[in-house]
Amino acid sequence: MNAEGWYVDPFGTHADRWFSDGTPTKLVRDGTVTSYDAPPSTEYDGTLQPSADAEPTDGADLIRADSPNPTPDYGRAAMEVWDQTAGLI
After folding, report:
1. Most distant CA pair in the chain, distance
2. Where is this region: Disordered (predicted)?
3. What does the domain layout of the chain look like in residue ranges?
4. 25-53 pLDDT, tens digit each
């Protein structure tokens, strides 16, 4: 199976890089900050290491496309934004 998800950036430019079907993408993160940075054109060597922050989920937090429209949980969304930005000001 090809790598899918967050892995330690094998290029060493960021903390983690998102891999899709075994291919590094431009989606990167450093701590709680997610941004875009295209991977270098050089190949990476070695075995990919899963990110220490990657938490496997069971998909319960996902919304299916064929589900009826759920009621948005604005309180939860606001708390997640607060948790991600606390201390950045």
Report:
1. 46
2. 29-74
3. 5-85
4. 999 999 989 999 999 999 888 899 999 87
